[in-house]
Structure formats: structure tokens, C-alpha cells
Amino acid sequence: MTETTGYSRSGLVLVKNPHLDLMEEDVLYHLDLGTKTHNLPAMFGDIKFVCVGGSPNRMRAFAQFMQRELGLAGAGEDVADICAGSDRYAMYRAGPVLSISHGMGIPSISIMLHELIKLLHHAKCRDVTIIRMGTSGGLGIKAGSVVITDTAVDSSFRPRFEQVVLDDVVVRSTELDKDLAEELLACSRDIPDFPTLIGHTMCTYDFYEGQGRLDGALCSFSSEKKLEYLRRAYEAGVRNIEMESTAFAALCGLCGLKAAVVCVALLDRLEGDQIRASHEVLWEYQQRPQRLIAAFIRKRLGLTRTD
Ligand code: R2B
Ligand code: URA
């Protein structure tokens, strides 16, 4: 089976599942939303930006930050969790921006994305840009640097995502939107407080052995072997390591969504494995992708600093 990526001329999300049209109702179980129980076009039809990230608290803080950045009524007040009936994911909105948590790892983000993409389809959203914001381990870059992903790669540095479908392995492309990455990089030039760069992001199935760490409960390789692997990753163009980007790029690409990944590096993995920065420092690092994405959304909406 060949699977094609590409954007639809109408700007609508492309779900590629003939069974969906035959269903009387679509229950988005993990989001606690559904086509019969909710008026999805009324609730979400005007969404233009979807921002996803691992932690529910971070995504609530991002929605509150966007309320202030967009000068929306109610800024400074609490925001309601649209998925409050499910404790799997949290979802908030700030004007045309939807902010959703995806948990850690490929299985968790995949489930959320299937339901989110169907939600955007049922709601008839048009011209949606989706951005994953997150944390990562840097490779040969200073802690606190922000990496905008050009291509997500697997543990062998290949731009591909393998999805098991029945008893087959389907290989999917992990290219991201190059123009969107450049647009985000251009926005970073107005935020001189931290370095931002474009590079490959390696996506793994595990934080410890899968990312070549020596400090897990299990480790069967030497420090030399670890460094040799991480240096090869650097030579292949990898600048950071995280746990969702290949699945995110593959699913969004196939469904016609313009997608980007923006992650801050919490440490340089060539220098160590443990994350030792203080809570204050880590909190400030996590603001960095948010600040960049807020600047991008403001620019897209034609807002200037005095708005
Ligand atoms: C980055 O941070 C998490 C692991 O600590 C994981 O979700 C990721 O991609
Ligand atoms: N997230 C990861 O997946 N790896 C790191 O090293 C840091 C954050």
C-alpha cells in the first residue's frame, strides 16, 4: 500500500479511512468528545493553530499565556479543560489556538493525534497549522537552545516511522514543513535571549537505553560506545533527541496538516545523562518554545507588540 503525503487544496484535514463515513457516530473516547454528544463545528470550526506538548500543566499554562499574548477577554483567569471528563489528555483553547497534552512517547501521542485529527475533520477546520512544543536532550548544543526540527529521524538516523498495521510494518515519511520551520526560525530572530537553530531530531522509544543513557536500571554498553553512537548521530545532522517527533510528523503529514516541532534542549547529551538544572532554570527553558510559538502566532495574526 502506498501512502501519500500532501496538503489538500481546500485546506481541510485529510482523514484517510473509508470506514469513518459509514459510522453513525464517532466517539473520541480519550478526549471525551463525540459527534453526537458535541457540536464539533461550533466548538472548534474556527481553530487555526493547534499546539501539542507532553504535560497537561504546561499546555494549560500555554493556553493562559496565549490568552495574554492575543489580548483576549478573560486573560489572567483560569482556562477550562475541554476534556475534563477524561484524565488521559487535557485540552484548552485561547481564541483560534487549541492547546492539548499528549503524554510521553509514541503510543500516547499517536492515540491523541488520531482523535485530534478526526476532531479537526468533523469540525471542518481549514488551514490548520500544528506545532509540537517540548523538551529534549541536545546534541552538541548548549543547554537551553531551541531546536526547530527539519526532519524527524529514527534511532538509525533514517527519516522514517515504522507503524505496525495488523501483522505488517508500514513505513511512513517523517518530513516536516520546511517553509514553516524557516518561518519559525525567522521569528526567533526577534527573541535574542536564547539560541535557536534548525536540525534533525532523533525520536526514540525510550528515555534510558533507547537514548544511550548510562543511568537507567539496565545498561549493557560502555561510556565509549555511548559517545561513539551520539557522535555518529551528530555527524548525521541530529541536534536533539526526544520521544514523539517521528509519529507526529508521519501522522500529520499523511493527513495534510502543516506541522512543526520546536523543542528546548535541557542538557547537552555529549556532556552527561542526568538532568541536574534547578526547577527555576528548567521552568524558564520550557517557556522558550512557548515564547517562540507565541511570536509566530502573533505574526501570523498580524498583531504587533503594541496590540
Ligand atoms: C521529551 O521529554 C519526555 C521525556 O522526559 C518525552 O515526552 C520527550 O519527548
Ligand atoms: N526528553 C528526552 O526525551 N530526552 C532528554 O534527554 C530530555 C528530555
Keywords:
Nucleoside_phosphorylase_d; 7 helices; alpha/beta; single chain; Nucleoside_phosphorylase_CS; globular; binds uracil; 307 residues; 12 strands; Rossmann fold; binds 1,4-anhydro-D-erythro-pent-1-enitol
Describe this structure in words.
The protein has a single domain (2-300), classed as Nucleoside phosphorylase domain (Rossmann fold, 3-Layer(aba) Sandwich), CATH 3.40.50. The strands form three sheets. It has a five-stranded mixed beta barrel, surrounded by four helices. It has a two-stranded antiparallel ribbon with strand order 1-2. A two-stranded antiparallel ribbon has the order 8-9. The protein is an alpha/beta fold. The protein has helices spanning 40-44, 56-69, 106-122, 178-188, 223-235, 245-254, 279-300, and strands spanning 27-28, 33-34, 49-53, 91-94, 97-101, 129-138, 146-153, 160-165, 168-173, 196-203, 238-242, 258-268. Helix 3 packs parallel to helix 6 (245-254) and helix 4 crosses helix 7 (279-300). A hairpin with a 4-residue loop joins strand 1 (27-28) and strand 2. The longest helix has 22 residues, at 279-300. Bound molecules: 1,4-anhydro-D-erythro-pent-1-enitol and uracil (URA). Uracil is lined by residues 135-137, 207, 211, 241-243, 266.
